[in-house]
Design goal:
By secondary structure, the chain is α/β, with parallel strands linked by helices. Helices cover 45% and strands 16% of the residues. The chain contains 12 helices and 12 strands. The protein has helices at 3-10, 14-21, 28-41, 47-54, 70-85, 99-111, 127-134, 157-169, 185-201, 218-230, 243-255, 289-305; strands at residues 59-64, 89-94, 117-121, 140-143, 151-155, 175-179, 211-213, 237-240, 265-267, 284-287, 313-316, 318-321. The protein has a 6-stranded parallel sheet, with helices on both faces. The protein is elongated and about 80 Å long. The mean pLDDT is 91.
Length: 332
């Protein structure tokens, strides 16, 4: 089958069939006739032929740091909803938080993979990252970080952390913080900066022994909390850079018979579904991750449709969600 035969069976011109497959204008009557023929014959247009004809592959590369992350899955859902509707298919590349693998995928998309654009859900930017990104011959949108000179959609990590930390610090005099490596600007340095500024606003001095760094896992949160307890430090609030870290800390506190929030308040960032069902339910920050993915995909569609690249940054909003792990619940 080819579009000539499809056109003859549907009683329309080849140009009409071509417009149908390329999302051009076709009347409802003719569109329905073409759709009936396609359904009857099982016809699918050749992607290779379309690529040769239009110079477009209809493929978009999406590089993600962790496939089983709740936040990443929400972003990918948003990206998929927009790109699928626009007729694009995704090539999903999972790096398992390996910066070298991230660079390898960027090089693959630049050198061998025929993609029309790339969305990078970023964590860190090394020199190798910047070189690989600059070599991309197609548009790029950075999601969840900011890279000057490139379009990006990112979270207000500083503001979110400052606000959620403020909740705990209103009734806390001896807080501690569990963060992640500052090479991750968004989750690392920006959230740490937000925490430190919240402490300053409350007149709280921060000592280095109350600032811990771990990875993004529940186990990492548990281990960091255990370190704090082993140091014999008194703390009445535990501010965590992510919800996963907070889940681990809650488990550790429960095993050491430290009541939350009566003895120690705990907050995080992310608001995954688990935050609403764990005991106690976690006070956290809700990021609009799916909407972030939608915005990034729309931004990329605009770049792929334009001959002129326009540098644009979009900072997303957030909502602080108060639940049972902070002291406000005690007065209810």
């Amino acid at each position: 089958m080819d579009i000539k035969q499809i056109a003859e069976m549907a009683g329309v011109s080849r140009a009409t069939v071509s417009r149908y497959f390329n999302n051009g204008y076709v009347s409802q009557e003719k569109r329905a006739a073409i759709a009936r023929v396609i359904k009857k014959t099982g016809y699918a247009p050749s992607r290779q032929a379309k690529t040769l004809r239009t110079g477009k592959s209809g493929l978009v590369g999406v590089i993600i740091p962790k496939i089983n992350s709740a936040s990443v899955s929400r972003m990918v859902a948003g990206i998929t909803s927009v790109l699928n509707e626009a007729g694009y298919q995704l090539l999903l590349a999972n790096t398992d938080n390996d910066a070298k693998v991230e660079v390898d995928f960027l090089k693959l998309f630049a050198e061998r993979s025929n993609v029309d654009g790339v969305i990078l859900v970023a964590t860190v930017f090394t020199r190798a990252h910047r070189e690989a990104i600059s070599a991309l011959p197609v548009p790029l949108v950075v999601l969840d970080q900011v890279l000057p000179g490139y379009c990006s959609v990112y979270q207000d990590d500083y503001g979110a952390m400052r606000d959620v930390a403020d909740l705990a610090l209103r009734t806390s005099a001896h807080p501690a913080y569990i963060g992640v490596l500052e090479e991750d600007v968004a989750a690392g340095s920006e959230r740490r900066r937000g925490y430190l500024d919240a402490c300053r606003a409350h007149g709280i001095e921060v000592s280095d022994d109350r600032l811990l760094v771990t990875d993004f896992s529940i186990d990492g949160g548990y281990s960091a909390c255990e370190q704090l307890l082993a140091r014999g430090l008194e703390f009445d609030a535990l501010v965590c850079a992510t919800d996963s870290i907070a889940y681990g800390a809650l488990t550790c506190l429960r095993e050491h018979e430290r009541a939350v929030p009566r003895e120690v308040q705990v907050v995080g960032i992310g608001d995954s579904e688990l935050s609403q069902v764990i005991t106690p339910r976690l006070t956290t920050v809700h990021y609009h991750y799916k909407t972030s993915g939608i915005e990034a995909a729309r931004m990329l569609l605009g770049l792929m449709a334009s001959t002129e690249g326009v540098w644009r940054e979009t900072k997303m909003g957030y909502d602080v969600v108060e639940r049972d792990s902070t002291s406000a619940c005690l007065s209810e």
